Structure formats: structure tokens, C-alpha cells
Amino acid sequence: MSHLTQAILLGLLGGYCHFDWWIGCPYLNRPIILAPLAGAIMGDFQTGLYLGAILESYFLGNVVIGGYQAPDAGVSSILATAFTISAGLDTNAALLLAVPIAVITTSLQDILWALYSFSSKIADKYAEEGNDKGVYLVMFLEGIGNILLKFLIVFLAWMYGSETVVALVNKIPEPIMNGMANAGGVLPAIGMAILISMIMNKNNAPYFFLGFILVAFFNMPTIGIAVLGMIIIYLRFDLGSIAQSLRTGDVATAVAGAEEDEDDF
Amino acid sequence: MTSNVQTREKLLTKKEISALNWRSLLGACSCNYERLTHKPFCFMVGPCLKKIYGDDKEAFSEALQRHLVWYNTTPQVYSWFGGLMVALEEQNKTDPDFDVQTINSVKAALMGPMSGIFDSIFLSCFRIIGASIGISMMLEGQAIGMLIYALVYNIPALVCRFYGGHIGYEMGTDLLTRLQKSGLMNIILEGASILGLMVVGGMCYNTVRVNLAYTYGVEGAMTSLQSVIDGIFPGLLKLAVIFLFLNLRKKRVNTTVLVFGTLIVVVVLTLLGIM
Fold first, then answer.
1. What pTM was estimated for this model as a whole?
2. Would you state the pLDDT for residue A264?
3. Which of A113, A154, B92, B111 is deepest in the core (most CB within 10 A)?
């Protein structure tokens, strides 16, 4: 595959990162999907799979919540995968490439979104005139602009940056490289910490340790943990009696009853 | 306001609400920091507004402007929200006593709670479970992990999206206020967080790798510190590292700083032969 073909294909994956938001946010613009695909383009799907797993575990807590724009996991995972495979970099060190790329990509998008505040004024004007089609047109153009931005970031970075990155990576002495690989193993802990701080509070903290212990001591697969979690929820909130009262239509008392039970602990 | 929602005169058919569900797919296609996903919201409810206000051009344009205000929720409940809003718009058209201000105040009031509850269900629960199963399979080289991730997240998400518009339109704000008053909302929130957190706990063990290279003892009978620690409590070092990061994050240390700080510390530890 020529360098240009690779650049175009990787760029299309980059464009998909935003196109995902055109088709109902199925969250396929994540490392877990994109890294294996980028790996396939680079001719090494298996390495892509592994990279997808470790990149996703770092970026798992990096999601758009409440308007906060997290560092771009999608674009960075495509480029990090491509660079890692072509430079023969230790897969565990790939994260160190991904993190700065993610931050840069999001900053570029920030600029675009700031510009969109102005184009929104045009849409406002169309709305005043009752011209719904005009509002939609502005929306589509902005959306296409965002797809183009991400296409171009990946395309240009691969087209003109790959040789530099590969040369730089190859200059790193081996002992430092080993250290970077070790650091790559520790970094998912940052992703996990972000995730935990999103979900954990005083009341539910023990459940985190329960999940950890189930894997550490008993090697339980995720599905087992999820099912056990559902059983715990069922028992803790007394869902059996709530379901019964839902049938008789008396929800408020049922829930109040369940909450009283909780206080007895 | 909520009581007459159920017996109201309906101006929209099932077909139009289904169209609203479909249009909600574009829910985040354009975005800016000033008002986030306001245009896609307008795009979603636009045809319904046109139907409601018919030839009344002025009312239609006012309605368009009403739905170009700041908007942001969990993408999977866009359609639900859209259904809710067109139900209110319809009331605005049919009920002369209706205060038009209500529409955007309901929108503003519900946006937060709706995002809170559905972010924790979709982003912090389904997505985490899917990703966790996917990651553990992909670490073993199984490509099907990708598919499992996509399905675990998207099947519930699509069900929610394609029923959402109808639920919102038929029930109005009634269902949500009832959920909130009854306390069921809290149960769902807490339940989702328990499930998500248990899975995250397991994932922490599977994805974080902290291995000490340090060994001690006499030649030929070396003991590695790592195996001693793992003999007492497997993964204790992983837990320690995670809680260190959790603490640093609480102190508002920037994530990028954390990443490169970790890099430096680990490289030094590796050079010293400790890791």
C-alpha cells in the first residue's frame, strides 16, 4: 500500500471520528474500534487489536460529558497505532504518543468551534425569517467542516509527520525505551482514576473494591461481575417488591418502603 | 400543566414522531461552545413545529428560535427530549392560557437531571461493561471483542432512541416528574453507578500493569518483591497506584502533567532496576 493510500485511508478513519456524531453517537469513534482498523490499514491487525485494548483503557474516562470536551481519543488512537506499527515501537509505549496527539487535536477543534459561534449567528438570522432549511444548511456545513478537520489532521500528520516520528522513535536508547514500555503499563491507571472519580462516592465505594477483588483473587470474567452487580442491585433496592407495587400502581409507597429498609442496615 | 397533557388534542401522528426519532440521529453533528448542539435540536423538532404551526409563519419562526437555545444532554435521549418539547409546543398552539415561557424553562430544568441519569446509564454503565468485556477479549487477541463492545452499548442506546420520541410525546413531563417524585430516579442512578463501579474495579486489575523487577536474597535463591506482594494481596500495587492518581486528580493536577510525570518517574525507576 502506498504512503498516499495509507494517508487517505487513515484520514477517512479520522473523518469518521466526527461522522460518528452524525449517526447517533454509537461511540464507534473510540480506540477500541479505531486502533484495530488503523492496524488493518497498516497491515498488522493483531497489534492494532492489542493497542485498541490498552488505548481504550486509558481513554475510557475521557468522554464528552456536560459539554466538556475531553482530549480526542479517536484521532490520537489512529495516529498512535499507525506510528507505533510503522516505527516498531513497543506496543506498551504507544500511549505516550497518543496523549499529546489527543490534546493537540482537541485544541484545533476548539478553534473551529469558536468560529462556529459566528456561523451560528447566520443560523439565528434564518430562524428569524422562519427559514428552517437555512438553519439546517448551516448545521450541515458546520458538521462537514468538523469531519474535514479531523480528516486533515490525520492525513497531514501521516503524510508529512510519519518519517520524523519514526526517526525520532528509533533514536531513543533501549534502556529508556524499556522504561517507556513500563510506563505504558502504568498509564491506564490514570484513565481508571478519571473513570472512578466520575462514578465513585462515599456510598458506593465498597463496590469498586468488590469488583477488584473478584478479579484479583478469583479471576472472574466481566460478564460474571456484571450479573453479580445486577443481583446486588436487585437485593439492595428490594426491586422485587417495587415491581409488585408497580403492578398495583402504588410506586411512591413501595420506594419509600424500600428506602426505609435501607436505613435499617 | 402536566395534568392536561394526557387528555390533550393531538396534532402529530406516530409517523411524524418516528421521523423525529430518525432526525435525532444527527443530534451532535454540529456543535459549538456557545450553545453546544442547539442546531441539531432545531433540526430534529423542525418538521413537527412546521406541522403544529402550519401557515402561521411568525409563530413558526418564533418556535425555531426557541429551539436554538443552549442544548446538551446524553445523545441517546435527544429524541425523548424532542418528543417532550413538541408536546409542549402543541400545547402552546392549542391552549390559549399556555405560557410560552414554560417551554424553555422546562427544557432548562430537565436538561440537567436527564443528562445525569442517562449519562450514568449509558456512559458509566453500558459503555463501561461493553468496553470492559471487549478490552479483556482484545488483550487475548480476539477481534470479536470489538463487536461485543459495539453491541452492548448500542442495542440499549438504539432502543432508547427509537422509543424515546414516542415516550416523550405521549407522556409529556408527566413520566419524569413521577419518576423523580417516587424516588425511582435515585434508585436507577445509584444502581447504574454500583454496576459501573464493580466493572471498573475488575477492569483496574486487568488493564493496569505495575511490575517490580527488584529481587533480593542470595544468588540462586532470589526472591522477587513483586511475588511476595502478590502472595499477600494480588494487585495491591495496582490499587496503590490508582489511588495515588485519584488523589492527585482531586488536587486538580492536570492529566497531561500526570502522564508525563509518570513517564519520568517510571523511566528513572526502570533505570535503577526497581521496575
1. 0.87
2. 41
3. A154
Write down the residue that cell numbers 502478590 correspond to.
B230
**Inter-axis angle of helices B57-66 and A94-128, nearest 10:** 160
Which chain A residues contact residue B211 at CB under 8 A?
182, 185
pLDDT at B33: 82
Mean of all residue pLDDT scores within chain A: 88
Contacts of A38 in chain B (CB under 8 A): none
Q: What angle do CA B61, B65, B70 make, to 5 degrees?
A: 165
Interchain contact B229–A (C-beta under 8 A): no
| Residue A218: exposure state from Cβ atoms within 10 A (0-12, 13-18, ≥19) | exposed
Which residues from B are below 8 Å from A133, CB to CB? none
What is the pLDDT at residue A251? Answer: 57
* Positive/negative CA dihedral, B26, B32, B34, B39: negative
Which residue among B65, B187, B246 places its CB closest to the CB of A237? B187
Residue A190 has its nearest CB partner, among B200, B258, B270, at B258
Residues 81-110 of B with CB under 8 A from A: none
User: Residue A168 CA to chain centroid, in angstroms?
Assistant: 27
Supply the mean pLDDT for chain B: 88
A91: nearest CA partner in chain B? B139
As given in the structure block, the three cell numbers for residue B217 are: 536474597
Contact B79, B21 (CB under 8 A): yes
User: Residue B116 is placed in which grid cell?
Assistant: 445525569
Interface test with A, best of B242, B243, B254, B269 (most A CBs within 10 A): B242
Write the CB contacts of A89 (distance below 8 Å, at least 6 apart in sequence).
A83, A97, A169
ipTM: 0.86
The answer to whether the CB of B134 falls within 8 A of the CB of B153 is no
- Closest-CA residue of A relative to B65 is A127
Q: Could you give the CA distance from residue A3 to residue B173 in angstroms, rounded to a whole number?
A: 55
Task: Tell me if chain B has a CB within 8 Å of the CB of A243.
Answer: no
CB < 8 Å to B250, chain A: 197
How open is the CA angle A43-A31-B137, to the nearest 5 degrees?
80
List chain B domain ranges.
Answer: 3-199, 209-271
User: What pLDDT shows up at residue B35?
Assistant: 86
Taking an 8 Å cut-off on Cβ atoms, the answer to whether A117 and B32 are in contact is yes
Percent of chain B with pLDDT over 70: 97
CB–CB contact A201 B193 (8 Å):
yes
3 state DSSP class of A121 = helix
Per-residue pLDDT tens digits for B157-203:
999 999 999 999 988 877 777 777 777 888 888 899 999 999 999 99
A173 interfaces chain B, CB cutoff of 8 Å: no
CB A199 within 8 A of CB B254: no
